[in-house]
Here is the input.
Amino acid sequence: MTSSQFNFTVVLASSCVLIVLGSYSLVLNREHHISFVLPSYFESLGIQCNQFSRYFCMLGYKTTLNNTLRIRKDNDLTFFRSLIEFTYQDINFFSFQPHEYINGGCCEFQVDAYRRFGREYGVPPSEYILNIFDLRNRSEGRDLVYVKSEYDSATCMNIIAQVGFGRGRFRDVGGEGLAHPYLLPPLGLTGDEVIVFEGAELRSQLTFGWFLENVICPEKPDICDPFYQNLHDQDLLKFLSGELDV
Here is the structure.
């Protein structure tokens, strides 16, 4: 597989102290996705998400290909925790460990997600943070590649529990497949609106842009502000480091 790369130096704020993380390469064509769980009453993570949000919870960034030569560092997990513990609420990246509810939902779950799906595949803490915070609406690398659902025999529909957007082959887990419609669980404070996608049109209709506007934006309007959405890669880094303000 041929991969395009770009390099930059990352500066992030941790505990109000700017830290230069160094230079590295992002592998643009690596199979990857960011995944979300929807609050529900039928799926274990969805039930736990209900503790924090009526719209969505971030599950993190996942990749299954190690396309870097980076050597894991002893302080990767500690450093990742220092980066996420002050920012996780901004993107609903909560811990689903019950004993951490008292802490507001941080940080064992997030650190374990980075360890399993980032560090193990050569992703440094800084790149993982950038991937989960890059919620700009763009078509490149934002395909619907993962859906987890549960089939409801009463409605003859697949009720969506989790979704993933990124690059790679499409995986449909659970449910009864694309021959049946897909239903979003009730979202928002009232949950009055029922949203259904025809199975054959799921990938063309449930796009990242649609998910951003209808699921993420109602609870996190700052992410959908034109200033944030129009940031270039370098400016996004500055924004996350506090060098750019909306």
Notes: Residues 146-165+172-216 form one domain. The chain has eight helices and nine strands. Confidence is low (pLDDT under 50) at residues 1-26. The two ends are 38 Å apart (CA to CA).
